[in-house]
Amino acid sequence: MVEAGFEAKGCAAARGAGSAAVELAEGSPVLEAALVSPATISAELGGLTSAATHAASLAADALHRAIGLAARDGAIGLSPEPRRTLVAMSGGVDSAAAAQLALDAGDEVVSVTLELWSDPGTDGERSCCSPQAVLGARALAHRMGIPHFTLDLREEFGAAVVDDFLDGYAGGATPNPCVRCNGLVRFDRMLALASRLGAARLATGHYARVGHDDQGPLVRAGADPAKDQSYVLARLTGPELERLHFPLGHLDKPRVRELAAAAGLPVARKPESQDLCFLAGTGGPAAFMARHSARRPGLPAASQAGDIVDREGRVLGRHRGHQRFTVGQRRGIGVAATEPLYVLSKDARRNRVVVGPRQSLAARDVAVAPARLHRPATSADSVRLRYHSPAVPCDVRGAAGETPGRGHHPELSLRLGREVRAPAPGQTACLMRDDLVVGWGTIADA
User: Fold this and answer.
1) Which one of 76, 254, 283, 391 is separated from 166 by 20 to 30 angstroms, measured CA to CA?
2) Computed from CA positions of residues 101, 104, 107, 112, in that sequence, does the dihedral angle turn out positive or negative?
3) Average pLDDT over residues 368-379
């Protein structure tokens, strides 16, 4: 049962809405309190004028943030229910369709949205984890009759993902924050909440599947290659996958939109959010770094000018910050040459960008550090070096040439079956066996 109180300053509508939120929540089962919406608060007050409806929204948000804080900190514990499913809702069509499929299957559905990043410089409407996304997802869940929880993980996300992103770009790498977020922040927190709410499983709207071999579950690629998200789930482990469900894994996007439209969901035609949520509308990594440099004192300025050099170190031109460039990039170099030039590497210590002809980007050997193998190295037959890139045949070896077993490794070496163009340091190397993810590593060099 929920215990509630309130403190409100402001207009009479705000004080009344706070009181109504308490009246609705006090003594109610937590899943009933998680259904309280601005509309129910307004109805409790006999209906608010359009000018005063903001008060109900503020009171509802305050109530849900308090419930979410209690859930995150372990103050809520419900008895296990085998048909209770926690659904991760972003407010988009994919997560809404996942929730609808669970409802159609007869599950008792509860939803959660993670607030990961709050920044006035970010376009919250294009982000899946902004304060705007939280409000939209909660309203959608309540419209579907689903209790909703909000988890505020901004501190954890900033430390594990944003700071790593800033450090990576400052050091000359091109990090993939989505892989890190899924592996270190999102899923373990949501699975912990599922346990506290007595939910047997966590369902998400990812286009991936769970496969099995004789050693247990593994992430499996989604049936639609154009939407497959197994790459960004590469860090998930067997124990986590035991409790995960990806109901959209066998579908393509048009079919998901059809399901949402048939169910009358208002997000059936909603545009997709941006993958790099905290970069939405910011102007790119360099602009983001310039605005958030205070998070990592001592990092070089994103606009610090330096030399553009060839492979022999000859100065060809100047740049306005190496963070503006990615390995393999052609446009924007600004150096005249007899043949097109590409970014071959970045020397962050000397603030240099190394450029050369396209053929110089070819690589057959790639080092990854660190790495984790979900299965022994002999089980990997290919690797994906970028999100949505095709798998390339590979052989996995340890730093000393040995054949590694499953588990964490400080460094691994990948020998590719064919040359690839521009493996980018900082990106994730997703190791595959057919369509199963059997390990991952962070590209260190090529």
Assistant:
1) 391
2) positive
3) 96
CB 179 within 8 A of CB 165: no
CA dihedral 233, 235, 238, 241 (to 10 degrees): -30
* pLDDT number for residue 127: 66
What one-character-per-residue DSSP string does 273-332 give? PPSSGGGTTS-SHHHHHHHTGGGSTTPPPTT--EEEE-TT--EEEEES-GGG--TT--TT
Confidence at 344, pLDDT banded by 50, 70, 90: very high
CB atoms within 10 A of CB 238: 15
Q: Which residues are catalytic?
A: 181, 277
Rounded Cα–Cα distance for residues 88 and 300 (Å): 37
The four Cα atoms 225, 227, 230, 233 give a dihedral, to 10 degrees, of: 170
Section 48-55 average pLDDT: 69
Residues 70-81 have pLDDT tens digits of 998 889 999 999
| Residue whose tokens read 């070896």 | 397
Q: Are 187 and 341 in contact (CB under 8 A)?
A: no
For residues 359-385, average pLDDT: 96
φ/ψ of 58, rounded to 5, equals -65, -45
CA 415 to chain centre: 29
407 beta partners: 373
Q: What is the CATH number of the domain that holds 267?
A: 3.40.50.620
Residue 6 has pLDDT above 60, yes or no: no
Q: How many helices (H) and strands (E) are present in the chain, helices listed first?
A: 13, 18
Cβ atoms within 10 A of the Cβ of 164, count?
A: 19
Give the span between the Cα atoms of 342 and 270, in whole angstroms: 37
Q: Round to whole Å and give the CA distance between 165 and 357.
A: 28
**Co-location of 40 and 86 in the same domain:** no
CA distance 274 to 272: 7
Which residues lie below 8 Å from residue 324, measured CB to CB, with a gap of 6+?
284, 285, 286, 302, 332
Domain shared by 266 and 399, yes or no: no
Give the residue numbers spanning the domain of 387. 363-445
Query: What pLDDT score was predicted for residue 152?
Result: 94
Residue 298 CA to residue 14 CA, distance in Å, equals: 44
Residues 98 and 163 in one domain: yes
Distance of alpha carbon 336 from alpha carbon 121, whole angstroms = 35
- Cβ–Cβ < 8 Å for 195, 110: no
Report yes or no on 291 lying in a domain. no
Find the largest Cα–Cα distance for the chain: 77
**What pLDDT sits at residue 401?**
82
